[in-house]
Amino acid sequence: MWVRFAKESIIPEGTGRVKFFGGIPVMVLRSNGQLYAYVALCNHKYYVLCERAIKDGKILCPGHGEVFIATTGEPTQRMAKRSLIRLNHEVKDGFVYVELPPRDVIESIASESLVEGQA
Ligand code: FES
Predict the structure, then answer these.
(1) Distance 26 CA to ligand 1 centre (A)
(2) 60 with 69: CB under 8 angstroms?
């Protein structure tokens, strides 16, 4: 399912936004002139990534300090087990649209986060 995320103009270079859709946090950021969209959950202990934590092409997890590369979603500190889940996106008529992950992906994120919790 595609959702209208925000006006493209509110995401200048080096910044990002986080919004929730059906309980799923979605981040859209701009780095090196390109937009990237991710599920904004760190898969270490499932803290929600914060839009203010984007700096110098990296995303810092507020939980325990994992650092993700903004353009790939890859973790660099070996706490997160996997890269961020990347989402399809497109810009149309000045708005960014994001394709939410399939239901089975959302359910697997929810069940893992309930098992692992936040500590
Ligand atoms: S939850 Fe992200 S580093 Fe622990």
Answers:
(1) 17
(2) no
Written as one letter, the residue type at 114 is: L
Cα R_g (the chain), whole angstroms:
13
Residues with CB under 6 Å of ligand 1 are 42, 44-45, 47, 61, 63-66, 79
Rounded to two decimals, what is the model's pTM? 0.91
Which architecture does CATH list for 2-116? Answer: 3-layer Sandwich (2.102)
Instruction: State pLDDT tens for residues 28-69.
Output: 999 999 999 999 999 999 999 999 999 999 999 999 999 999
Across the chain, how many H-helices and E-strands are there? 1, 9
**Ligand 1 atom index nearest CA of 65:** 3
What distance in Å separates the CA atoms of residue 84 and residue 94, rounded to the nearest whole number? Answer: 26
